């Protein structure tokens, strides 16, 4: 009897420790889609200059898309309504009053996975300064969390890429969801396609992945040659419905190229629009050209979307998440 009583006391102590020093319950699953955040601030601020500054910062258009689409979709709630299920949002920007301007990051407080960016400011002017000076940084926090979220999902439904000759020959690793199907695998060039199941493009739209390599000749000219390289690949491997038709970079729209980093290596991120020469098919593309100095080559990952009449930001974002999972062995 004494042994049983002693065991119960120890158990109660353990429960007490868990209650005071850590979680003793399972967090609910967070709600909300990728590229969407909930802003918690007073409605009076939201309807005045601080709200205007947030809409300007987060409402910037994503480059390379045929229709105007914002980088992030933003909704707002007054602090008085921030309770119960509203706290379970996946991405939250929470404004609080303080004597100093600052931001801090809290993860998995009310739900999981969840990221809360706590922004503190003394007054309206402080809020405006905070968004002007650190709005881009706040956006990157949410974007990185969304990419990690998508990559975790894809890792659970990962395609066995070892079946593809091109991936074996290139010696790379990449997390691609199993919904993608093979179009072409030459050993030097891989094309995978996912048929989209939503929106007006149901049954017709698709997300596409291309993977290949080209020799590294002059590192100083990589960015300038990305369009020429992808056009040559399009002519060789991606035909249209008739002879003389193939995928090219849209001639009326200049792509945007930025320096990036993939697998700790220097890379270039290019966003633009593709079209089929002598045809009416078109859409956005995302290209990562990774500098592999060790093997004197460039590894190219490209994703492109064909989804007429529907928004394409989130389709391209999924391709971005896949591209950023690439690793060179």
How would you characterize this protein structure?
With 329 residues, the protein is of the alpha+beta class. The protein has two domains: 138 residues, Chitobiase, domain 2 (2-Layer Sandwich), CATH 3.30.379; 171 residues, Protein Transport Mog1p, Chain A (3-Layer(aba) Sandwich). The chain has seven helices and 15 strands. Strands 7, 8, 9, 10, 11, 12, 13 and 14 form an eight-stranded antiparallel β-sheet that branches. A five-stranded mixed β-sheet has the order 2-1-3-5-4, covered by helices on one side. The longest helix has 33 residues. The protein is elongated and about 60 Å long. The N and C termini lie far apart (61 Å).
Q: What are the salient characteristics of this protein?
A:
329 residues, alpha+beta, Chitobiase, domain 2, Protein Transport Mog1p, Chain A, 2 domains, eight-stranded antiparallel β-sheet, 7 helices, disordered N terminus
